[in-house]
Design a protein that fits this description.
The complex is a heterodimer of chains A (216) and B (617).
Chain A lengths: L1 H18 L8 E5 L1 H5 L8 H19 L9 E4 L6 E6 L10 H10 L1 H8 L6 E4 L15 H41 L8 H4 L19
Antiparallel strand pairs in A: 1-3, 1-4, 2-3
Helix pairs in contact in A: 3-4, 3-5
Chain B lengths: L15 H12 L2 H5 L1 H7 L6 H26 L3 H8 L5 H29 L22 H5 L2 H10 L14 H18 L3 H11 L2 H14 L4 H9 L9 H14 L6 H7 L7 H50 L11 H11 L1 H7 L6 H6 L5 H14 L3 H33 L9 H16 L7 H11 L3 H31 L5 H28 L3 E4 L11 E4 L2 H34 L11 H14 L1
Antiparallel strand pairs in B: 1-2
The chains are: A alpha+beta (216), B mainly alpha (617).
Chain lengths: 216, 617
């Protein structure tokens, strides 16, 4: 009995070993860069971590195939190195049929964030050789922010221009009103200087040059 | 205050500080930040300072002193001054007018680009830090992937540049509104002539120094800053043997001081007559050069930082490749022991090592990538800013600084246009100066729309290379000749005696009479020879080029070449034309005596006043 079990086990192992080999057609290579990602907080790689990986991948397969009961034993890793990189293949539940590469890829892509999260890693530090991370869509707000800044600046400048143009006109009008009041109240004294009274009288051109006022 | 219909009252500066800040602001421009450090770098660092300082002392300061003295004494803008000295050289003023206008048009376009970047710096993350996705959202945009996000943002999203100057493309609306903003800002500062401008320069001339200091402190604390500074200042004495170095030093000092634009003459004419313009000239010249030096320190610290960042990125890439290939434990190879591992693996497993084809990571090579002009500001600097913590703040500060530097130079250009126009009496007298400024800004804006086309950048390069170079040299030459030989050294010395209380010493006299004209002539001839040797080319951004992302070198087509010739000739054509006109008119006047006399004129009175006029001038 014991021998039979041992035989079965070794068979299954050897089958698994045959299934998974470096460069397997239906397999993927995984690389972990834990120290790069976490620095001092890095956890050491161990059999438990490997178990977590197999569990996470089984979850991904289940999630993608909508319920097919993948288990930890359906994920077969091999060729583990010091880098923390290894190959793995996935078999269908309770069989030794390999799941094809495309399906594995779609499953991993769908649950990539969950797998990364389980290991506290990112797309760059948990690398599946051949599966490129989906690119984040760039954030595009409804109103481009630069138009807002432009609006603020131009608004300020336009207000400034209008203020600078209108202010002296307003001042002049106020002054004219004040002058008109003053003139009405004062008597008209003094000699009519050229500025105030020059329009009176007849302009005799024979004595003056082209300019009305002599140049200094 | 302004030019009234009555007795002409010239505008005045509120105080001396306004005048000095305006002149310094005019001289100190964007070129001090992005041209001088580049020249320093390619011409052997510290060694370049020698030809530069020699050019400053023998060419820059005498010209500056000449312009300031002439304007302050004769109290007129660039056209009036030369007409007063001798009507025959009145064309020099008109040349200044045309050059100021053309330079103002393309210079403000550069300010529009600065504004565009400024507006876009208020985003997180900065828009030039990542590539956009392509249409199918499967990968990044191809053009951006092949070059860099920074290059892509500049050439594609800002300029939307065409691969060739002949392909004009369409008007870029984003750029048009930035250009409109730039001209509006110039207008609001210039709305009341020097009254408003004099207030504006308190900010625009001083703010760049504040920002440069902030950048200096920040840049010196960045990793790799010392590498950049060492590279900049290590003198390579061999370069002094190259005549090109001396030529470039002379041209750099000349263009940097903004002489021959006519703006400086106008500015100094608003001074009171008894002002020590000799000290002003030396002050402005020295401050301009000192600013160039001061600006090159943070610029090179940041370039050193950028080179170090690129080096580390290169090394990280190689480390990853090595770790993956040789299956070492993660982080066995680090940046610190990179060199050791590199050598070890190269010698122990040469075959495998070569198969990896790792990139060469060389700091010196990265530092050698020198850039000047728009490349420095909009590509290199923006890339460096991404790697600095708090990128938005640094980007905003940098672009506001560039804008201030450019704006204060624009004031000089606009003054160089408005003041001659007023003196040529081309404008009706009822027009208030607000309206005149508005019309000039509007016309310049409409002409500058040419630069908002997709091929606009190529046209800016054309203008920059040819309007802002040869005509200025010719004008400056005629200015010196006009003052020294038409007005006479004796009269000019008397002028300076009246203004400053002492006659110019032997150094100034020697420079004006011999050294500076000779230097200018040599520079002009050498410049023309160098330009004429090769057919002018330009660098085009062509995504279909096989060596993309390198820029493709293309020849200017013939019609562009014709425009280049026009740009060089039109500003200076007024000098011989006006001279000819005045000589003919003089000859004509001698033959018909009574033609111009006023029928009411009583000779006894008229000749007196005319004599008074010439005595006053």
């Amino acid at each position: 009995m014991l021998e039979k079990i041992l035989l079965l086990l070794s068979l299954s192992f050897s089958v698994a070993e045959e299934l998974c080999k470096p460069g397997a057609a239906e397999g993927y290579k995984v690389r972990f860069s834990i120290k790069t990602a976490l620095g001092d907080q890095a956890y050491p790689w161990s059999k438990n971590e490997m178990f977590l990986f197999r569990a996470a991948l089984a979850f991904a397969m289940r999630d993608y195939t909508n319920g097919e009961e993948f288990g930890v034993s359906d994920i077969h890793p091999c060729d583990e190195t010091e880098r923390v990189s290894f190959w793995f293949v996935v078999t269908r539940p309770n069989t030794t049929d390999l799941v094809d590469k495309g399906t594995v890829e779609m499953a991993i892509k769908k649950s990539r964030n969950r797998i990364n999260g389980a290991f506290l890693l990112t797309d760059q530090t948990l690398e599946f050789d051949g599966i490129y991370p989906t690119l984040a869509a760039p954030v595009s707000p409804d109103t481009p922010p630069w138009l807002i800044v432009f609006g603020v600046v131009m608004g300020a400048v336009s207000v400034g221009i209008i203020a600078l143009l209108v202010y002296p006109l307003v001042q002049r009008k106020l002054k004219k009103n004040k002058d008109a009041d003053d003139e009405d109240s004062d008597e008209e004294t003094g000699v009519k200087t050229a500025e105030i009274g020059a329009n009176d009288g007849i302009y005799n051109s024979t004595f003056s040059d082209d300019e009305r006022f002599t140049q200094m | 205050m302004g030019k009234d219909a009555g007795p002409e009252e010239r505008p005045k500066w509120d105080n001396k500080a306004q005048y000095l800040l305006t002149c310094i602001g005019f001289a100190v421009g964007i070129g001090n930040v992005w041209r001088f450090p580049y020249l320093c770098q390619i011409y052997g660092g510290g060694a370049f300072l020698i030809p530069y300082l020699i050019a400053l002392v023998f060419e820059g300061l005498p010209l500056l002193f000449l312009e300031l003295a002439v304007g302050q004494r004769l109290r007129k803008g660039s056209v009036g001054v030369w007409k007063t000295i001798n009507p025959v050289i009145g064309g020099v003023g008109i040349g200044c007018l045309i050059v100021s206008f053309l330079v103002g048009v393309f210079y403000n376009t550069i300010l529009a680009w600065v504004l565009w970047y400024f507006f876009h710096s208020f985003q997180e993350p900065l828009p030039w830090s990542t590539c956009p996705l392509n249409e199918s959202r499967t990968d990044y945009n191809l053009e951006c992937k092949k070059s860099t996000p920074v290059n892509y943002f500049w050439y594609r999203e800002t300029l939307n540049i065409t691969p060739d100057i002949e392909i004009s493309g369409s008007v870029e609306w984003g750029m048009v509104i930035c250009l409109a903003s730039a001209w509006c800002i110039v207008y609001i500062c210039f709305i009341k002539g020097i009254d408003s401008m004099g207030k504006a320069v308190y900010v625009t001339s001083t703010f760049p120094y504040l920002v440069l200091t902030i950048f200096l402190i920040r840049a010196l604390t960045l990793p790799g800053a010392t590498d950049g500074l060492l590279y900049l200042f290590t003198p390579d004495w061999q370069t002094l043997k190259n005549p090109r170095v001396w030529l470039d030093a002379a041209t750099q000092i000349f263009f940097s001081l903004s002489v021959a634009f006519g703006g400086l003459i106008s500015f100094s004419s608003y001074n009171e007559e008894k002002n020590n313009c000799e000290r002003d000239a030396v002050l402005v010249g020295v401050i301009n050069s000192a600013t160039s030096l001061y600006a090159s320190i943070p610029v090179f610290s940041i370039l050193g930082f950028k080179a170090t960042t690129a080096l580390n990125a290169c090394k990280d890439e190689n480390i990853l490749a090595l770790t993956n290939h040789f299956e070492f434990s993660d982080q066995n190879i680090t940046l610190q022991n990179y060199d050791y591992w590199y050598e070890y693996l190269n010698t122990t497993y040469p075959g495998k090592f070569q198969s990896l084809s790792l990139r060469e990571c060389d700091l010196q090579k990265l530092l050698k990538q020198s850039v000047s002009g728009t490349g420095l500001a909009f590509i290199v600097f923006t890339e460096a800013v991404i790697s600095m913590p708090g990128s938005q703040v640094w980007a905003v500060l940098f672009f506001v600084m560039l804008f201030s530097l450019g704006l204060s130079s624009m004031f000089g250009n606009i003054e160089g246009v408005l003041s001659p126009l007023n003196e040529l009496k081309l404008l009706p007298r009822w027009m208030p100066k607000e309206l005149t400024s508005a019309i000039i800004c509007l016309i310049s804006f409409l002409v500058a729309l040419l630069f908002t086309l997709s091929s606009g950048n190529y046209w800016v390069e054309v203008f920059n290379g040819y309007v802002g170079s040869v005509p200025l040299l010719i004008i400056a030459l005629f200015e010196i000749i006009g003052v020294i030989y038409f007005r006479g050294m004796k009269t000019f010395s008397d002028d300076i005696y009246i203004m400053t209380g002492r006659r110019p010493n032997i150094f100034w006299k020697a420079c004006w009479m011999v050294i500076s004209p000779l230097l200018l002539l040599v520079v002009f001839v050498a410049y023309v020879i160098v330009q004429a040797q090769t057919r002018p080319t330009y660098q085009a951004w062509n995504p279909d080029y096989e060596k993309f992302p390198e820029t493709e070198q293309k020849l200017y087509p013939d019609w562009v070449f014709a425009i280049i010739i026009l740009l060089c000739v039109v500003p200076v054509i007024s000098i011989p034309l006006v001279a000819l006109y005045q000589l003919l008119r003089g000859r004509f006047r001698k033959s018909s005596v009574g033609m111009e006399l006023n029928p009411y004129d009583n000779d006894a009175f008229v000749t007196d006043t005319q004599e008074q006029k010439t005595q006053r001038a």
